[in-house]
Structures are given as C-alpha cells and as structure tokens.
Amino acid sequence: MPYATAQDGVKLYYEEAGDGPPILFIHEFAGDWRAWDPQVSHFSRRRRCTVYSARGYPGSDVPNDIESYSQDIARADALAVLDHLGIDKAHIVGLSMGGFATLHFGMAYPDRALSLTVCGCGYGAEPDTREEFRNLSLAVADNFETRGAADYAEEYVTVPGRLTFRDKDPRGWAAFVARLAEHPDIGSALTQRGVQASRPGLWDLEDKIRAIPVPTMIVTGDDDQRCLAPGLFMKDLIDRSRLFVLPNTGHVLNLEEPEIFNTVLDEFLSDVDTGKA
Predict the structure, then answer these.
(1) Distance CA 69, CA 48 (A)
(2) Which of 22, 102, 116, 187 could in theory staple to 94 by disulfide, Cβ–Cβ 3.0 to 4.6 A?
(3) pLDDT of 188-201, one tens digit each?
(4) Residue 38, C-beta contacts closer than 8 angstroms, at least 6 positions apart
(5) Average pLDDT over the chain, rounded to whole?
(6) Kind of pairing between the strands at 113-119 and 90-95
(7) Which residues, 6 or more positions from 161, have their beta carbon under 8 angstroms from its beta carbon?
(8) Among 62, 75, 85, which Cα is nearest to 16's?
(9) Reduced 3-state DSSP string for the chain
C-alpha cells in the first residue's frame, strides 16, 4: 500500500490516478480518501489526481495522543503528501475540514499551490458560533469514543445541511454512511478534539486570509446555512477569488451534485491554467 510519511513519522495512505497538472483532494471529517471518487473518475482523464486519508482515518496511521492532531498538523500533512510525490505545485481542493486545511495551506504555503478550492468551509468559524461549535465537537468526540463509529455514524450525519444528499440520492447516502461507520473510533474522537474543536475562527485570521495570493474558488451549497456567511467573508478578503453557490445543495456537495461540481471545478482549473483566474 502506498504511504507518505508526515513530519512526525505518521504514515498517510494515498492513491493516485491520471497524468497532467496535479490536483490534491483533501476530505471532510465524515469522509476519507474514497470521498472524492466522482472527482477522480472525472479529472484523472486529463490530470494527475491524488487523494489521501488524514491521520486517524482508514488506511492511515491512527495516533492515540491528542498532541498528534491539530489544524497546523493537518495543513502540514497535505504538504507531506506533495513532498513525498515530488509535486512542486498542485491545485488544492478540500471540503469542510479539508476546506479549512486547504485555506490554511494557501496561507502557509502559497508557493506550493497552483490554486485553492475551498468547499463547505466555515461551520463554527464565525465569532458568535465558536463556543457552540467547540462544545458540539467535544460532544461528538465523546460519542465516537464511547459508542463507536459503527453505532454513531448515521446519527452524526443526519443533521440539517446534509439531508438534501440523503433525500436526493439514498443509495449514495447509504454508501457514505457505511464508509463513515468504518472509521477508527479513537481517530475520529481525537480529530474532533484536536482539529475541529481547537481550530481558529476565520475572523481571527482576517489578515492572513487577505494575503492569500493564489487563485481561489469558494464553493458552498445554499442549504449549508452555516457556511454561507463565511463563504462571503472569504470572497471579500481574497483578491483573486470567486464564489459559487450550488442551488438546493447541502454540505457534501461534491457527492450530492457531482456533475455540477465537476463542471464548475473544471472551468476554474482551466481558467487558472490559462492565466484567466
């Protein structure tokens, strides 16, 4: 099995397909490397696509100490994958937790990004939602640790912002839940405590976000209410940015509306490649 090694020695499982300009996909909390299958099938026809599982996720190492999980570590792990593969620059695409990692990648390593696509990013990032989100993340962590992913997975994702996916595509939803149920219990719990609950809010990072120099696309679903205002906030700050809102779409937008998402992402990447973005 192919692995990239992080700075602290943690092994990260990855897969690749295709040749051409590289894209690195970073999954959300409820996903793993398999969450980007519709995008890899589409983009690998013309591009080099890399997906990987974050630490604590299926295929990758699962450290048992909370010090091994943080927003900065998640950002650095994405860079470790590129370094392992000898990729100097890539289009970075992330959803939700992966969207935060993508944004932080652009702030920390802009010289390694051809572009950023930040999807479903911002839940709990507004100043008046920070404490509520932190408490919710800690409660989620306790549920994954005590009840286990197999028991808690469907309850975790059966929430507003994700239900349009369930209603539109019951088969795809069932596969999504089944994959989440396979996640390591302690890896999920520590990811919630170390990454989700402890990450800085976007409003605390205003100057760093404003300084992002690379072309950036922000994507959100109009039913993903808690990511709409943060999406506008990022759009206003980043000079070379665009915002796309998918209609009647929730949080898991790349799986819920793969054809629309692929079309929009394809156009953006082509604009970047030709200097139009």
Answers:
(1) 28
(2) 102
(3) 999 999 999 999 99
(4) 254, 255, 258, 261, 262
(5) 97
(6) parallel
(7) 221, 223, 224, 225, 226, 250, 251
(8) 85
(9) CCEEECCCCCEEEEEEECCCCEEEEECCCCCCHHHHHHHHHHHCCCCEEEEECCCCCCCCCCCCCHHHCCHHHHHHHHHHHHHHHCCCCEEEEEECHHHHHHHHHHHHCHHHEEEEEEECCCCCCCHHHHHHHHHHHHHHHHHHHHCCHHHHHHHHHCCCCCHHHHHHCHHHHHHHHHHHHCCCHHHHHHHHHHHHCCCCCHHHHHHHHHCCCCCEEEEEECCCHHHHHHHHHHHHHCCCEEEEEECCCCCCHHHHCHHHHHHHHHHHHHHHHCCCC
Q: Enter the tokens of residue 120.
A: 């479903």
Place of tokens 């969207």: 99
Say how far apart CA 30 and CA 255 lie, in whole Å.
12
Distance CA 180, CA 34 (A): 10
Tell me which amino acid residue 42 is: H
- Nearest of 122, 115, 102 to residue 264 by alpha carbon: 115
Q: What percent of the chain has pLDDT over 90?
A: 100
**Residue 55: predicted pLDDT:** 98
The tokens of 276 are what? 């139009």
Judge contact between 255 and 38, C-beta under 8 A.
Answer: yes
**What single-letter amino acid sits at 211?**
A
Of 215, 252, 220, 207, give the one whose Cα is nearest residue 28: 252
